[in-house]
Design goal:
There is one protein chain. It is built from no helices and 11 strands. The protein is mainly beta. Strands 2, 4, 5, 6, 9, 10 and 11 form a 7-stranded mixed sheet that branches. Strands 1-3-8-7 form a 4-stranded antiparallel sheet, with no helix packed on it. Strand 5 and strand 6 form a beta hairpin.
């Protein structure tokens, strides 16, 4: 089992930036693929970004490519999502997710992850 706790959400104006953090409870965090997803009102939970266990491989949804950066610090059991040039359509509840895998791959499907945090709200005003 691994517990995930997100933080860093808030209210920001369009064009601004936020950095989300997701802290994991397990010392074996370094063997987990990590992903970020978001849920906006009236929409399904959608993939945002993913990172392999080592951090060598990353992948982004087209909607955030070039604006968001996913990174991780395995020594701190934490994964980050830096959001820049935020838009009102980025408003959502942001979740981090984990799946144990040291093959070097990443996952983009929500059903491919085993563990989820409770989410942190990001609101972008126009």
């Amino acid at each position: 089992q691994v517990q995930l706790v997100e933080s860093g959400g808030g209210l920001v104006q369009a064009g601004g930036s936020l950095r989300l953090s997701c802290a994991a409870s397990r010392r074996t965090f370094g063997s987990y693929v990590m992903g970020w997803f978001r849920l906006a009102p009236g929409k399904e939970r959608e993939f945002v970004a993913a990172i392999s266990w080592s951090g060598d491989s990353t992948y982004y949804a087209d909607s955030v490519k070039g604006r968001f950066i996913i990174s991780r610090d395995n020594a701190k059991n934490t994964v980050y999502l830096q959001g820049n040039s935020l838009k009102p359509e980025d408003t959502a509840l942001y979740y981090c997710a984990a799946r144990e895998d040291i093959s070097g791959t990443y996952y983009t499907g929500r059903y491919e992850y085993n563990y989820w945090g409770q989410g942190t709200q990001v609101t972008v005003s126009s």
